[in-house]
From TrEMBL:
Location of the Helix-turn-helix domain: 9-61
NCBIfam families the record matches: excise
Gene Ontology MF, one: DNA binding
Source organism (scientific name): Thermosporothrix sp. COM3
Source species taxonomy: Bacteria, Bacillati, Chloroflexota, Ktedonobacteria, Ktedonobacterales
InterPro entries: DNA-bd_dom_put_sf, HTH_17, SinI_DNA-bd
Stretches of the chain forming a coiled coil according to its record: none
Protein name as catalogued: Helix-turn-helix domain-containing protein
Domain of life where this protein originates: Bacteria
């Protein structure tokens, strides 16, 4: 039996606040491939992304910051 782990998904704004950077910076990291994110279906003016909490936790626990 395979056990699924459900990871909390964070918005660009939530990640930006936790890293103390601007939303635009987080979006730039995602577009450049420096930060792994899930792309949601496009609705509205901007592309929507979600970042796994485990990805952010890994970054905060000593991972190299995105360039």
């Amino acid at each position: 039996m395979v056990e699924e782990t459900h990871d909390e998904l964070l918005t660009v704004r939530e990640v930006a606040r936790r890293l103390r950077v601007d939303d635009t910076t987080v979006r730039r990291w995602i577009k450049s491939g420096a930060l792994e994110a899930i792309t949601l279906p496009h609705r509205g003016k901007r592309q929507a992304y979600r970042i796994k909490k485990s990805t952010l936790d890994k970054l905060l626990s000593g991972g190299t910051p995105p360039a």
